[in-house]
Each structure stands twice: as C-alpha cells, then as structure tokens.
Fold:
Amino acid sequence: MQRVGVIGLGKMGLPIARNLMERGFEVIGHRRSGSPELIEAGGQAADSPAEVARRSDVLLSIVPDAAAVTDVVCGEAGTLAGLRPGAVHIEMSTIDIARKARIRDAVQRHGADMLDCPISGSPPMVAPRRATTFVSGELASVDQVRPVLDAISGPWEYTGAFGTGARLKYIANLLLAVHMVAAAEAMELARRSGLDLDLVQRTLDDSIGSSAIWRQRGPVMRERAWSPAPGPITTLHPILEQIEDCTAETGLSAPVFASAKAVFDKALADGWGDLDIACVYDQISGRPALRPGDLPALGQGEEAS
Structure:
C-alpha cells in the first residue's frame, strides 16, 4: 500500500501530501486549478479524480464544501469512475454528515469504503504534525489504512461509527469559536483598561484562563494582522452553520455558542470573510478591520475608544 491519491491540494491538502511523501508514500494528486507545488515536492499530477482513483491504493480528499465532495466522488470524472474494489477513501472535508453518508453509500456500492476523517487544526499546524484527525467509520477499513493515517498530520483518534468524526469536529469548533470571541473581548478589555498588552499576553499564556486560541491568536490580535489569513472566516463559518444545525437536532440550547456565532455572522456580512478569525477583535472593538496597506495598528498608548 504505497500509492496515495490526494484530491484537493489547498492550504491543508498540500502539506498533507508532503507529509505522506516524507513518510515514503508515492502521492498522485489532483487539483482543479493545478498544483505545480506538488510536482516540485516529488508528487505526480492527475487530470481528474477518476484518474487518481485508478492509480491509487488509498484515496484522500479535503475540499471546501459538500458540492465539491459530491463532484469529486460522483461527478462525471469522479472517483467512482476509476475506483478500485477494496479501496479506502479517507474523506477529510467537514460537511453535513447525512450528505457524506449518502456519498459513502455510493462508494460502498462500488465495492470500496469511505471513512469520515475531519481534521482539527489550522494549516500551519499540519506540516509540523500538530493537527489531529478524527477518524470514523468501519474499523476494518481503518485498520487497512493505519500507516496512511499515521503519516497525514500528527495524532489521530478513532471516534467510532461513520459521522462521529464530524460530530467531534463540531465540538472542537464550537470551543474554537467561543474561545476566539472570549479572547477578543479579554484583549479589548485589557486595551481599554490601559494595560500593557505584551504583559497581558505573557502573564496569561500559562494561566488557568488561557487557551490554545489565546496563545495562538493573542499575538495576531495585538498586531491586528488579519491577512494573509491562516484561518479565514469563510473556512470556519460553514462549520458553525453545521454546529447550529446539530444543536437544533439534539435540542440543545447553546446561548454562548449562539452569541459567538453572531459575531462571526456579522463579520461575514461586513465583508471580512477573507480575514483571519482573529479579526473578530475589531468587531468587538468597533474598529474597521485592518487590511494590508492600511495604517499600522493602533499603539498601546493610544486612548481607548
């Protein structure tokens, strides 16, 4: 099992492909817009998902949305057209669980299997193998691709039946959204209170009130460096919509999540979708989002608005 087909060579897929090659896997990749970076890294390009499927022992896809996953698998040149019997498709996109299950069913009717394996972590966490993959589906299929899962991006966890990976991703991103807005409120309160923001960051990094978001996005907030975005709002927001559906489905009242989502909703409506999620700091402070070419960030000595 040496040939892995990677479909979707964007901010997450390309470093995943590189990680696989570093572990000795032969990678055949496809991206609609092409990926010279894959060739430069030693991978091979395919003209379609169907070609990837014909040439690969294991498939892996990570694409933006449900329409893209459907096209990758069921489209005219989708993987079903070239799928090998017994192959396993590691599907890493975060989309509606019921829709992904229907796509999995189509794969199974062709004598192969699909695993639901969303990844938790930002693009900069993938290459150094600090992102976590939530693996769900048939355990026999998981066992078949364990070496590939080990090579993808870092630790992985088997969560159970198909779809439990996505549900765990929902929990992770609920916390991410809430922590991001809370960190933005805390940073803005510190600024308005006249505190030295470097001191605030340094003091709280290892405190009980800290979080991974505070440590990672605190420096981004202090610099108001929203672009280029390691984690743009356009990537997070569809998952927040899925979480909202999940809370409704389970009958959960989630007022803290709802408040955090409202902040991201407004940021998206204001045209901030291409900016990093940390830009909600400017939503909280009421300032226009800082973009490349704008004036430098406000100095710490400046009076709070």
Summary: Residues 295-305 have pLDDT under 50 and may be disordered. The chain has two domains: 3-162, 167-285. Residues 33 and 149 are 26 Å apart (CA to CA). The two ends are 60 Å apart (CA to CA).
